Amino acid sequence: MGAVVTALGTMAAIVLGGWVLGWRGTLGPGAQTVLARATFAVATPCLLLVTVAHADLHLLISRQALVTASSTAVVAIVAAVVLRLVWHRPAPDVVVGTLTASYVNAGNIGLPLAVYLLGDAVAVVPTLLFQLLVLAPIAFSVLDAHTATVKPGLRGVVGRTLRNPIIVGSLVGLLLAAVPWRLPEVVFEPFALIGAAAAPLALLTFGMALAVPRADGGTAPRRELALAAVLREVVHPALALVIGRALGLEGPALLAVVTMAALPTAQNVLVYAIQYGRGQPLARDAGVLTTALAVPVLLVIAAVLG
């Protein structure tokens, strides 16, 4: 339990620092957007390249990966159906809303929890890869198609998707992990150094967003926020538990998949929302609410399954 408190406390301290910077205007006007773009286009792709390049790709066909993929897919589909078919939200808002419900904070808090609570950073890899190689490409394809000035056809969507820095970093890392030889570590060092800035920059951006006044439509719709919170902190970990038990997982393996499923909404969702100019209030407020809810949920999971 101490690991959960330590990881969440560290994250909260950095967010608070970002809030102070935003409240005082220390970095000047437009700083939040610049930080978000730097995180999106530079730091995060470098982090993903290094992380995926060193991952064991056998995790992609493990039972843990199957639990992660199936439970996350169900949550994403439920969110998309409700947002689009029931509440009739525009496609870009559906994407951001779906990400707030299904895209977890695997990097900023998942990695520390995997190390301190589960004893192995590899536990976060199935979640990280599914988000990067499945959720992110689908989300960016829809966002690019609906936010571009000129609507691209299929070839244009594919081209824009493959030029997305997040996806490029992930695919390059996947390629390096798949080849039978390994590059010298010195080659990865510049990417690792830049990538190390991704988590703190995302958290600082999140904190700065909290300091922005919420007038003029700056508050997230309550029902969409409630949907994201329930799916994120109740439905997803419950699904992971049920599916994991059905597939025979137990002990540390079951604890790992349920813990990863209970992580709060990733701050990167806010970065993406700012990048595409859609759904910023929902991404911001979902990050705050699910992070607060994740504390008791993760403590309960650690106590019951640990």
From TrEMBL:
Location(s), subcellular: Membrane
Transmembrane segments: 6-22, 34-53, 65-87, 94-117, 123-143, 164-181, 193-213, 225-247, 253-274, 286-305
Keyword Ribosomal protein in annotation: no
Origin superkingdom: Bacteria
Membrane-protein topology: Multi-pass membrane protein
Single GO cellular component term: membrane
Pfam short name (any one): Mem_trans
InterPro entries: Mem_transp_PIN-like
GO biological process: transmembrane transport
Keyword annotations: Cell membrane, Membrane, Transmembrane, Transmembrane helix, Transport
PANTHER family cross-referenced by the UniProt entry: AUXIN EFFLUX CARRIER FAMILY PROTEIN (PTHR36838), TRANSPORTER AUXIN EFFLUX CARRIER EC FAMILY (PTHR36838:SF3)
Protein name per Swiss-Prot or TrEMBL: AEC family transporter
